[in-house]
Amino acid sequence: MNDPAGYTPPKVWKWVAANGGQFANINRPIAGPTHEKTLPVGKHPLQLYSLATPNGVKVTVLLEELLALGIEGAEYDAYVINIRDGDQFSSGFVEINPNSKIPALLDRSTPTPTRVFESGAILLYLAEKFRAFIPKDPSARAECLSWLFWQMGSAPYLGGGFGHFYAYAPHKIEYCIDRFTMEVKRQLDVLDRRLADNRYLCGDDYTIADIAVWPWYGAAVTNGVYDAAEFLDAATYTNVLRWAKEIAGREAAQRGRMVNRVNGPLEKQLRERHDASDFQTRTQDKIEAAS
After folding, report:
1. Structural domain boundaries of the chain?
2. 239 within 8 A of 32, measured Cβ to Cβ
């Protein structure tokens, strides 16, 4: 194994903002807002402030799935929070999520507006509010929540660990890449074994567990994140691939992936979403063609 230049940690760490990483301009060791800015508010009770990262996609997929069931109360306005520009540090966003991470949801249908932050918490809140995509049977519900929280605990190894050192770090460090690759492959094996005998993570029913896991691990095996499917030998996880492709074929999942997206093909970007018709009339290709 290669031996990078030696580094001895100081007795007390000090922040050096210019660390060379892709996200150096937004990473900082303190919380709180950096600037005053009021968030926009649309016409629907549910206000979503997000970006189409895997964590953001979880919520928009669930909202679109709820609407596909005919649940009118799940109508929502979605606004882009561009994390590379530091939008998550505005005073308005920090009021909803003091942790300054997307996604963040404000439910104005309650007597006092309800804020919900952390993607897993938002999925659970919406599933319980609308009584959909979460099992009613206690044992099945426990299984669903176990996989939901498995994702919340496991994905940082895929994103902040593997993804960062494989795709974003200013230097390729063999130890770091090997460490997190081994863990991601172990996680993929966990999923592959579960899906060998189950259509979805909780059996025959599609739930918030699948909606949480798919944007991360489904994207990893289909080369949707980090351009690393070959490196991870994703083709060997046949059950995960089958599951990922099935969910990708759902129309609601396809719509959910488009919302708050600011990269990729313009016809797949719906940067703001206020109505179902926006998918036909307000994608970025149409907006730019009209400007």
Report:
1. 138-255
2. no
Contact 125, 108 (CB under 8 A): no
Place of tokens 């969910």: 247
Tokens (6 digits) for 269 = 């970007």
Can you name the residues that pair with 104 across neighbouring β-strands? 49, 117
What residues form DSSP beta bridges with 80? Answer: 50
Beta bridge partners of 188: none
Which distant-in-sequence residues (6+ apart) come within 8 Å of 151 by Cβ? Answer: 120, 209, 212, 213, 216, 217
Measured distance CA(106)–CA(78) in Å, rounded: 11
**Topology adopted by domain 138-255:** Glutathione S-transferase Yfyf (Class Pi); Chain A, domain 2 (1.20.1050)
The residue ranking higher by pLDDT, 170 or 43, is 43
Q: Are 232 and 188 in contact (CB under 8 A)?
A: yes
Task: Judge whether 225 and 273 are in contact, CB under 8 Å.
Answer: no
Q: Distance of alpha carbon 262 from its chain centroid, rounded? A: 14
Q: In a 3-state reduction of DSSP, which class is residue 122?
A: helix
Question: Which pLDDT tens digit goes with each residue over 76-104?
Answer: 999 999 999 999 999 999 999 999 999 99
Omega cis (within 30) before 103: yes
**What residue ranges in 17-125 does DSSP mark as E strands?**
46-50, 76-80, 104-107, 114-117
Q: d(Cα 99, Cα 101) in Å, to the nearest integer?
A: 6
Cβ neighbours of 82 (radius 10 Å)? 13
Q: Say how far apart CA 176 and CA 185 lie, in whole Å.
A: 14
